Each structure stands twice: as structure tokens, then as C-alpha cells.
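Re: weekly structure request thread

Next one in the queue (152 aa):
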Amino acid sequence: MMNSGVDLLIRGSNVYDGSGDDGFLADVGITGDRIACIVKAPEGYKGRAEKIIEAKGLSLAPGFIDTHAHSEFTLIADHRAEGKVFQGVTTEINGNCGLSAAPLFGKAREQREGDFQEMGIKERWATFGEYFRLLENVHPSITMRRWRVTAI
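Done, posted below.
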């Protein structure tokens, strides 16, 4: 990988890898949507790169997980999720406190109608299947996960 090149090189950042260990200086190479290499200082990446971001004095970390989010409807309204992405959130968990985008019918749907109109959501759904198909079609910028809870 060192000589074949990468699409994007983030050079000289302080990398926090999510392990809980101290950060380390490194160059991070990205090809497509995957990390292709991490080369610690002082060696540094020696291959070619289509684009280089000079990150000296900056920190780099994997995406953060928001474990209690309420973006079920806003992701349909605006798939970019800029408020999350700008904070480094790449994954969120929704529906773990009782609020959920589905099932949504009867009075629950009537109560949400004002929210739909306010957010400009034209689509309607009733089941989880319908909701998740709609969510897949808008291609949100973050990954959304839901809890499956079983009461015994």
C-alpha cells in the first residue's frame, strides 16, 4: 500500500484510535471510503496521494456513536445530518427511550402530522419496514441503529 497511492492523505495528525490509549502522530491514507493505511511518525507515508490535508496540530479519531438520539424524523427531512457530522457523530441509536418513528398509525400518526408538515416530510409510513425502506432511500450521512427490546 505504501507505493500504490491513496485518494486522500491526512498528514501529521494526532491519531486517537478509540482504544483508550494515548494518541500518536501519524499519517492516515484513505482510498475510496476505507482507511488504507496508518503510518506512524517519524516514518510517515511515502506514497502518492491525490489530495493531502496537512493536519499538524490537529486530532483525528474514528466516528463517534450517539447512544441516545432523536433523529428518526429529521433524517428523513434532511439526510445530510450536518449537526451530527460536524461533531464527528457517524452512528446513532434511536428509539431507546420510547419515542420511535414506527409503528406509526392512528392517533400516534395524527400527533406527528404537524411535525411532518413543519419539517417538510411528504412521505408517510406505518410500519418499521416502510420506515427503514424510506430511510435507506434517502441515504443519510450517518448510520442509524435501533435497539430491539424484549420484555419478559
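The mean pLDDT is 88. The first strand starts at residue 6 and ends at 15.
Next request, please.
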